Known about the structure:
mainly beta; 14-stranded mixed β-sheet; 5% helix
Amino acid sequence: MTNASVFCCLRGCLDGFKYTENVPSMPKESPIRLDTNFMGYEVVIVKGGQRVCGAGAALGNAPLVQSKSYFEAKIQQGGSWSIGLATRQTDLSLTQGGMDEHSWALCSDHIIRHNKKELFKIYTGDATEGIHLQEGDLIGVSYDHIQLKFYVNGKELDQSVTNVKGTVYPAIYVDDGAIVDIILDNFIHSSPPGFEKIMLEQSLL
């Protein structure tokens, strides 16, 4: 990624920091965020570990160890992106998720991938029934150690992934100008019944 593209990425990532006169009081900062120790060399993480841009992957700093976990990601700016789960063995220089044996992801081209294989193609269909991933969409991810499921703007996709293995973390991959915010609390859409935000293991508190 060139210096110019890094600057454009930073400028886009930092757009959310414009001054406003009436700044609401900030809620207590969550300890869960994107991990600057586990991101690609060309990835930029800002906004307190909530926003990612650049080229490559970023993982969350807490694994999904509880029985039922849920998080969301908002596509702030279009481009190439993937959202899902990965172990810390994944190649963080990859710009698309599901391209190694350590990641499982819904990609911006409407395909759910794992280990370079296309597991499912999301039905795009007509304008009323099909899913058309685009800028502004809200992607939900739920995992119960049996099934990995994805949601688009609150609607559960028919496809689920059942071959997730290992200790996994939230994973976001970006390229081609994409900017994605991870939402780990105060969800836009209600989490599925029984599912909760990612929590730190007691031993880490």
